[in-house]
């Protein structure tokens, strides 16, 4: 199936599943969306704030990692290479101590001695790449860490949800509804992948990794002999992003309404229908509908149907609030 890796599970009721929150997996998802142009559903206001937190070396760091031609990243720099591993600070220490020749050898091995053009500057100066890469990741994490801490109740709730599904024989419902980008076809997991493969789970356990990044987050690893792990958006993520504005935010409308609803209200004259809203925010239609419902109940927008589309416009009160806060 084009664009989807197929992971054949066998009998789902025999699959050993656990939930493993992992800061490094979330950080890699954020890196892909915010700097790598691989959308994971991070809201625009947070993408801007996190991008501003990245150091100036970002361009030469992310280019090799997210080239359209390759999806392969050396394990030693994924922040998930030792999954489940230790805490985020230990991961940063391990990255800082990564021997340059180990990275070079891994690249040579991964690409069978024919290192692609975008990775050659890294091979020529691996020490500089490691230092720059660590600085980019640290900048993103320092800006994002408050959100990770606030996500703990969501992660705990997800651990409980999956545990209940496992003991009641409902894992198929969990696996089929992990993400808008994943799916379950019979007993085969479908995972989005620029370079899709077909693999058997065999007797390996599955670690589900709830990601605190975006509504379309998806990172995974099926190559290890001892386990498979699959990252997906933690349920309830949309409200978490909206609870707290990005660091340093000075947008008065966002401080009053929350960043997501402020963006919708401000753009209501340009975003003519609900599909535009979901596309602009890179969120699911249900998330866009939730925020628009709150704005409508506050008397700031109205929604109406024209043909097959649900359209929206600001009310007089909505116009007045935008003008007052601009």
From TrEMBL:
Entries under Gene3D superfamilies matching the protein: Winged helix-like DNA-binding domain superfamily/Winged helix DNA-binding domain (1.10.10.10)
Superkingdom of the source species: Bacteria
Record-linked InterPro entries: WH-like_DNA-bd_sf, WH_DNA-bd_sf
Protein name: Helix-turn-helix protein
Species in which this protein is naturally found: Actinoplanes italicus
């Amino acid at each position: 199936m084009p664009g989807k890796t197929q992971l054949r599970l066998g009998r789902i009721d025999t699959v050993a599943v656990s939930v493993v929150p992992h800061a490094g997996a979330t950080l890699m998802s954020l890196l892909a969306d915010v700097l790598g142009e691989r959308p994971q559903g991070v809201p625009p206001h947070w993408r801007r704030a996190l991008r501003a937190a990245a150091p100036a070396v970002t361009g030469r760091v992310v280019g090799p990692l997210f080239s359209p031609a390759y999806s392969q990243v050396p394990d030693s720099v994924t922040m998930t290479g030792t999954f489940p591993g230790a805490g985020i600070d230990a991961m940063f220490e391990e990255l800082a101590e990564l021997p340059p020749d180990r990275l070079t050898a891994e690249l040579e091995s991964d690409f069978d001695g024919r290192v692609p053009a975008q990775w050659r500057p890294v091979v020529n100066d691996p020490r500089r790449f490691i230092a720059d890469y660590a600085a980019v990741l640290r900048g993103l994490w320092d800006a994002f860490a408050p959100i990770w801490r606030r996500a703990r109740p969501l992660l705990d709730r997800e651990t409980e949800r999956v545990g209940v599904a496992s003991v009641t024989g409902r894992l198929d419902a969990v696996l089929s509804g992990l993400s808008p980008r994943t799916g379950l076809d019979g007993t085969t997991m479908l995972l989005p992948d620029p370079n899709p493969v077909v693999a058997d789970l065999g007797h390996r356990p599955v670690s589900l990794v709830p990601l605190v990044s975006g509504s379309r987050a998806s990172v995974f690893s099926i190559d290890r002999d001892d386990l498979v792990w699959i990252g997906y958006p933690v349920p309830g993520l949309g409200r978490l992003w909206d609870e707290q504005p990005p660091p340093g935010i000075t947008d008065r409308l966002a401080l009053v309404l929350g960043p997501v609803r402020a963006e919708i209200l401000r753009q209501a004259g340009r975003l003519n229908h609900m599909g535009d809203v979901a596309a602009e925010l890179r969120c699911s239609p249900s998330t866009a509908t939730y925020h628009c419902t709150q704005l409508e109940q506050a008397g700031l927008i109205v929604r109406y149907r024209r043909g097959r589309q649900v359209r929206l416009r600001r009310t007089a009160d909505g116009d007045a609030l935008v003008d007052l806060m601009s």
